[in-house]
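[Q] Does anyone have a clean structure-token version of this?
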Amino acid sequence: MPFRKVNLKVDRRALIPRPETELIVDTVRHLLDGKENPKILEIGVGTGAICLSLMQEIPGIQILGVDLSIEGLSLALENASKNALPLTGRLMQGDAFSGLRLEAKFDLIVSNPPYVGRSEFASLAPEVRDHDPELALIGGREGWEFPWKLIAEAQGYLRKGGFLVMEVGSGQAQLLMKKAADLVWASMEAARDYQDIERFVIFRR
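[A] Here you go.
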């Protein structure tokens, strides 16, 4: 399937990228405009759609991708090869930040994390519920729990002035920003998708 300028193989190993997710790449490109050799971390690589697009569209980018699913990482590597992009050695298996050294610092962290509530799972469209891996969909009992974990932990891995850019569920953006009010973020904002839903949050350290 096409995703921006890359062509992706999709199967049951990872979430099929949605058109809205392409907007993450636009947002990251805008935030990093003029930044030389930016260092990026992606949490939840999946098919590789985001990291491969960023590698193709941002010259000099240094990227590290982390995913809990070994199967998803294998698919990302296949897609990297398919698009002649060098992801080998730039991926690691792990749960969010757990495998990273504390001194690791990035200019930007990007993620399309699981954000569906467990109670919502049964009501998802069959093509999503029956195809996409549950691991890539369910973010906790209410759905916002895993995105919140990323917000709470990301500051320690960002350089000053660095950004966290994340896709979230409908209705979650304001909740997450309210919960983050006591954290030391320099700014927080929500951005809308093609359906005018607050689909993304942008935090600046």
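[Q] Thanks! Anything notable?
[A] The chain has a mean pLDDT of 91.
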